[in-house]
Design a protein that fits this description.
Length: 268
């Protein structure tokens, strides 16, 4: 687990690499889709954190110029994130958008708390970081990605990550945003898109000292840190900005955070 490479981010606590052991577990082949989350909401009347707040963060190229013009205040240091009123899992780009044509896409704008509520309803749970990384590697050891060391395979793109110069508009015709949960080929364990597309919440609290804080047997960071772990990267990842779509990559966010590139995968 982890890496000894220097291509990552020291502040994330990706390394050093070490051997860990996890008990048998199950994990979903894909992230939870819009269709699956819609069934949960219909059954429970759950109101997500984004809906309660009345807004969520959307990447600037996912919304129209008119919507961008209405935004008055941008997050400090992150001008590509727009707080869009009305954006939520049902309206990924805000008012006027919808999910009917994207029921097979990952649900987004879900907080860690929303993901945990879904798991409670479904009789499942979020994977630990160790489980996630073991499954994401697909049986490979020490490789950057679920399919090997090279970002591009013989057939071209292997995952949905940023194309072009971040955060400028891509010149390739590629549109920033999630794609269908099964669009790319699975890894050796049958899991789709454990690199790129959307960030995936994990059960652990996040800490850069994860490797020091956790056991080698079924490791899980239980010390409260204020931030929950996320794995896998998203469609916004790029070597020049967020090279965290490698299987050893780590990130985090507060449990109530939502955005157009955050989803989750379930385990049991």
């Amino acid at each position: 687990m982890g890496t000894d490479s220097t291509e990552g981010f020291a502040e994330d606590g990706e390394g050093p690499s070490r051997l860990v052991q996890v008990a048998p577990f199950r994990i979903a082949a894909t992230t939870v889709t819009n269709a699956q989350f819609r069934a949960f909401v219909r059954a429970t009347q759950h109101v997500t954190d984004a809906e309660q707040v009345g807004s969520s963060f959307v990447f600037w190229l996912q919304v129209s110029a008119a919507q961008r013009a209405r935004v008055r205040q941008l997050p400090r240091g992150l001008p590509w994130w727009l707080p869009v009123e009305g954006a939520c899992w049902q309206r990924p780009q805000g008012p006027g958008s919808g999910i009917l044509a994207r029921l097979d896409h990952p649900v987004v704008h879900v907080s860690w708390r929303d993901a945990n509520a879904y798991c409670a309803w479904a009789g499942l749970r979020l994977p630990t970081e160790a489980e996630w990384e073991y499954a994401a590697r697909g049986g490979l050891e020490g490789q950057r990605y679920p399919w090997g060391d090279e970002l591009h395979g013989d057939g071209g793109d292997m995952c949905n990550v940023w194309r072009g110069r971040f955060p400028d508009a891509p010149a390739t015709g590629w549109q920033p945003g999630p794609v269908a949960a099964q669009q790319f080929a699975p890894n050796g364990f049958g899991l789709h898109q454990t690199s790129g597309n959307v960030w995936e919440w994990c059960a652990d609290w996040f800490s850069p000292s994860y490797h020091l804080d956790t056991s080698a047997q079924n490791p899980r960071q239980v010390r409260l840190t204020g931030r929950r772990s996320m794995r896998g990267g998203s469609f916004l990842c790029h070597p020049s900005y967020c090279n965290r779509y490698r299987v050893a990559g780590r990130s985090s966010n507060t449990p109530d955070s939502t955005a157009s590139n955050i989803g989750f995968r379930v385990a049991a």
